[in-house]
Amino acid sequence: MILLTGATGKxxxxxxxxxxxxxxACRALVRDAGKAAPLAELGIELVIGDxxxxxxxxxxxxxxxxxxxxxxxxxxxATLEKRFIDAASKAGVGHVVKLSSMEATADTGSPIPxxxxxxxxxxxxxxxxxxxxxxxxxxxxxxSSAGTIKEQGRFFLPMGxxxxxxxxxxxxxxxxxxxxxxxxxxxxxxxxxxxxxxxFHDVAGRFSEVLGTTVSYVDMPADAxxxxxxxxxxxxxxxxxxxxxxxxxxxxxxxxxxxTVSQVLGREPISLSxxxxxxxxxxxxx
Length: 286
What we know:
Elements: E1 2-4, H1 10-21, E2 26-30, H2 37-41, E3 45-48, H3 54-61, E4 66-69, H4 77-91, E5 95-99, H5 111-125, E6 129-135, H6 146-152, E7 154-157, E8 163-164, H7 169-181, E9 188-192, E10 198-199, H8 200-211, E11 216-219, H9 222-229, H10 236-250, H11 260-265, H12 272-278, H13 280-283
């Protein structure tokens, strides 16, 4: 039995779908039964509760061989993930796959990667077998710019001339599903990127090619972007953390790519052009 956490989110949901397609027995710990209804339709067993609910967590971890640890970024994330790891160890789970970050290093000063690094260390010290799946900027982050791409032919981000090998969530989920169902992946870290190292001017070029119209990237001043983002993020910690991550991209902190997807899955990763094509209904006025 595989236990899924974060299964009602984008990445966790993609993992759930891919495991269900493989016919793998899965259970999901979820807070909202209504939101998790699509998981039940896939044949995934549901346990209602969260990491703070010891009874629900114990029920979710019962007879579990492997678990996927995916939580949304928050100030409490490290505490919650460590609690889950401790409970998994106590329950006799053999293997935990953690969704982490390529920026999670010992010397990072950025809040989200620092939190991931703390949890990675805790997992490695737990005695459990582990696998870290460490992506960078998600292509799906660009979905939040669909409105301005449609209406203005522009998108606004504070990335300067920074480049990244951005990855599609579907590839990240496929790597996680493979790690869970195949041998040879325990106690390894996998850094997941897409096939191209792109600046956000390059990103605009890919959108222009696929949509058949000119799309431009506007390098938004960091202060102005922070002011805009504050309208959508209630947590000051989360606001600071996201702005810090984006400042790291602008400074060139993610200017590399890997061949992890081809090595693990035996195929090329999804390109940005494919991503845009697959989401034409979102980005293009039809």
